[in-house]
Write a structure and sequence with these properties.
The complex is a heterodimer of chains A (about 400) and B (about 400). Chain A is of the alpha/beta class. Chain A is about 40% helix and about 10% strand. The chains are: A alpha/beta (about 400), B alpha+beta (about 400). Chain B: It is found in: Mitochondrion.
Chain lengths: ~400, ~400
């Protein structure tokens, strides 16, 4: 970092009215306490955190505050599917705190008021790099998990279209390609997340895997998943079966289905995978991608589809692209049309302040100027209130 | 000192000093043209003189170092200069009486246009005092007896100056003692206007005295003058001390401050440009804003993904404590990411000068925010791999 050159004007003795603005969801007596003695460290927990653990009860008053997700829930909901920097932060602070932000609140509001008789509505979270799309998705997933939905979460669709090692010709359809490794990983995570449902849902057809193994009609879905995990060769087909079953059965109303895909623009972009004869593979030739595309079509009801666009892992897309039209391309846009776009933008001043407070509480910012107004202004300028940039900056301080 | 003897070609009349270890006794002779140094071998050998007229013997480069110009020579040069000045004024159609040195420079630059890069290699016409180095006249008379009483100290001008200054100091103290004896002594501490002037530096003093000094000599002299300043002294002593002070411009450079302009809504803004390496930038800084910066229409966070570049942009605002108070729109082209950031920084700093007090402008200048970085890429030289890197040296 730049060595701080001596300031022209010694830090003005400004009062800090901003501190009084951020009140949490605590009872009014703490508010009175704030007004009584505005010392710099008066119950800082009130400033950036809220004790409301249930996402269903999050509302406008919680905007900008962090809420805690129990680590147990984290392990079930997000096995290996958090963004790497966030999972490092979780490990460092030994707590997982998500900030409640407007796009997520908006989504939750829509979800609470969905009519499950209508076809599934698609929501697309889009925004510039580092603004918090993936974590908003995580917030929504947590909400749905609390509401007992079945979560179909693809943490990063880009992983399915680049650097896959074992590509096999599909057993189901000769023209497509299988990705056993990715499919089996996904099945494992799916199993961890949705343990309870696997025994409840019964398959409605008979599936023959190979000469010796088959799944009878009426057996629990768990068997299909097990089959995919144990027989890695059939993993992709197992995924396809799971998706088809879930799509068919969610309309019946036994459960509600949430399809959450991060980086959905990967499904319609290009791949970097090559066959043995060095010819490029198109995304629709991958069985996983094909099945997922069918999943995000809105020809079923009984659930919702929440998607996120991501330039970070995308292939052959310019760095500054963030709009749906740019990232999805014509084909993807037409496939996803109609959808509800939700813009995720940089922090508002209140959210920024809250984030800094959170870091200060966890003693993450060690620079002596970090808690001063000038320090905050510097951070604001350098990161331009972009959450990702701010996190990276603070990692150095 | 067994150096070979040197004979100068043209008919020179010189006095040869026989005997003894005569070293560099040439200055004492009477030379018409550039003299050569005669170095006699050890011992008391008498050299045989050989007049070699017209033959240019091998020049001893060491001899050309100390060319002495006689007083007559200098006087002649001055006369020629003055006449030449009048001719030049006539040529240019100006009045010879009021033809100043700047006019001469302009006229010479006009008549002899030169494409040379080195300014000192171009044709000049200046007063001989500025061209020929100051030299000391002969310090002794015909009989060999020196004129100055301090000649044998070796640094006669310096010691005479010290003597003079100390004499003045003693006078002042004597006067003070007399006043004290009479009881009219008043403890008046004078606050001289020492700001805005500085002591002569050692090189300037050497130039004034035409004599080499050592650092200790110089320090001693300055101490003496400062001691003279502390006591109360009369006008002539003041004048004596002021001879050794040079003025210093308080603000060594006047920064050009852009005028404010007003746009349609009445918001004040200021525009200026900046350059760094091969990047050119133009910045428009608005007076009231919230710290948004747009570069070529793109937000600065997206345009400069590297933190270092954004720190460069932050520097002028952070220095003036105006983070988040101005909006900036800039255009930049050329260069790489780092030079574009530097160019924008310079442009923003210059534009900010219009919103800020003069004192702060001076502080910015001292911080280096208003100076264009002169570093450019050094050219690659033949025989080397890069500008400085040489090819790998192989022993065989």
């Amino acid at each position: 970092m730049l060595t701080r050159t001596s300031r022209l004007v010694p830090g003005a003795r400004r009062l800090d009215p901003g501190r009084l603005l951020h009140t949490g969801s605590q009872a009014p007596q703490s508010l009175a306490a704030h007004l009584d003695n505005p010392a710099p460290d008066d119950s800082p927990r009130a400033v950036s955190r809220t004790s409301e653990k249930d996402p269903a009860r999050h509302g406008e008053q919680h905007e900008g505050l962090h809420y805690n997700i129990p680590l147990q829930d984290m392990r079930t909901l997000f096995p290996h599917s958090l963004p790497p920097r966030f999972s490092m932060q979780v490990k460092t602070f030994s707590e997982a705190c998500l900030m409640v932000r407007k796009p997520a609140l908006e989504l939750l509001h829509y979800l609470k008021n969905t009519n499950f008789a209508h076809p599934a509505v698609r929501y697309v979270l889009y925004g510039e790099k580092g603004t918090g799309k993936t974590l908003s998705l995580c917030h929504v997933i947590h909400f749905c998990a609390k509401q007992d939905w079945l979560i179909l979460h693809v943490p990063d669709a880009h992983l399915w279209v680049k650097s896959c090692r074992g590509l096999l010709p599909s057993t189901y359809n000769k023209q497509r390609l299988d990705q056993p490794a990715e499919a089996s990983i996904w099945l494992k995570n799916f199993k961890t997340t949705n343990e309870r449902f696997l025994s409840q849902i019964k398959v409605q057809e008979k599936y023959v895997w190979n000469k010796r193994e088959s799944t009878e009609k009426g057996s629990p879905l768990g068997e299909v998943v097990e089959q995919g995990i144990t027989r890695v060769k059939n993993a992709t087909d197992a995924v396809g079966v799971v998706l088809r079953e879930l799509k068919g059965q969610s309309s019946l109303g036994g459960f509600r289905l949430l399809v959450a895909v991060d980086g959905v623009n990967a499904l319609w972009g290009k791949t970097t995978l090559k066959r043995e004869d060095k010819s490029l593979v198109a995304p629709e030739e991958l069985a996983l991608v094909h099945n997922l595309r069918k999943m995000v079509k809105n020809d079923w009801h009984g659930g919702t589809i929440v998607l996120t666009l991501s330039q970070t892992g995308s292939l052959f897309k310019p760095r500054k692209a963030y709009l749906p039209q740019e990232l999805l391309g014509k084909e993807g846009f037409d496939a996803l049309d109609p959808f509800i776009p939700i813009l995720v933008s940089n922090y508002s001043p209140k959210e920024f302040e809250s984030c800094i407070q959170y870091y200060l509480e966890n003693s993450w910012l060690q620079h002596e100027k970090a808690h001063t107004e000038e320090g905050k202004k510097e951070l604001l300028f350098l990161s331009n209130a972009n959450p990702g940039q701010l996190e990276r900056l603070c990692a150095h301080l | 000192m067994a150096a070979p003897c040197v004979f100068w070609g043209a008919a020179v009349s010189y006095r040869l000093f026989l005997g003894g270890r005569v070293s560099l006794a040439l200055r004492q002779g009477v030379w018409k043209a550039a003299a050569a140094e005669l170095q006699v071998g050890t011992g008391e050998k008498i050299l045989r003189l050989r007049h070699t007229t017209g033959v240019t013997a091998k020049k001893n480069v060491a001899a050309l170092r100390r060319e002495t110009y006689t007083v007559d020579f200098i006087k002649k040069q001055i006369e020629e200069f003055n006449i030449g000045k009048r001719h030049l004024a006539n040529m240019m159609g100006e009045d010879p009486e009021t033809f100043t040195q700047e006019d001469i420079d302009r006229a010479i630059a006009y008549l002899f246009p030169s494409g040379l890069f080195e300014k000192q290699a171009r044709p000049i016409m200046k007063h001989p005092e500025q061209i020929f180095p100051k030299q000391r006249a002969i310090q002794w008379g015909e009989d060999g007896r020196p004129f100055h009483f301090l000649f044998y100290t070796g640094k006669q001008s310096y010691y005479s100056l010290m003597h003079e200054a100390y004499g003045k100091l003693l006078d002042v103290e004597k006067r003070q003692n007399q006043l004290q004896a009479k009881g009219l002594f008043s403890e008046k501490t004078k606050t001289k206007d020492l700001i805005g002037s500085r002591w002569l530096i050692k090189e300037e003093l050497e130039e004034m005295l035409v004599e080499k000094l050592s650092d200790q000599d110089y320090a001693q002299f300055i101490r003496l003058l400062e001691r003279l300043l502390t006591v109360e002294c009369s006008a002539e002593e003041e004048e004596f001390v002021q001879r050794f002070r040079r003025s210093v411009t308080v603000q060594s450079r006047k920064q050009l401050i852009e005028p404010l302009q007003y746009d349609g809504q009445g918001m004040a803004f200021s525009t200026s440009e900046g350059k760094r390496k091969s990047a050119k930038a133009e910045a428009i800084v608005y007076e009231h804003g919230s710290g948004r910066i747009k570069v070529n229409g793109i937000d600065y966070l997206l345009y400069f993904p590297v933190t270092q570049d954004r720190e460069q942009l932050m520097f002028p605002f952070h220095f003036l404590d105006r983070l988040g108070k101005h909006d900036v729109t800039c255009t930049v082209s050329g260069g790489g990411r780092s030079s574009q950031a530097g160019a924008i920084r310079l442009a923003m700093a210059k534009a900010l000068c219009s919103f800020v007090t003069e004192e702060e402008v001076e502080w910015m200048r001292q911080a280096g925010l208003l100076t264009a970085d002169p570093r450019v890429r050094e050219r690659k030289k033949p025989g080397q791999e890069g500008a400085r890197r040489k090819f790998t040296w192989k022993k065989r």
